[in-house]
Design brief:
The protein is an all-alpha fold. It is built from three helices and no strands. About 0% of the residues are buried.
Amino acid sequence: MNPSTVAFVPVPGAPELVIILFILLIYVAVPFLIVVAALWFYHRVRGSGDERAQRRIEALEREVESLKQEREQ
């Protein structure tokens, strides 16, 4: 065995690196984007927590005012 061939470690070239990056894109980036899109859609459909809380507070304030008016009468 020739000692120079034992020390040789093959390094991937440009085509191999492109394929590796493409596989990485498919297996990591695409599922990540799907999860982000699903969370964004869920957030849009349900409404943000601040908006829902504000609507709930306004409804409770209206109810308190109506109860105060009933009590005064």
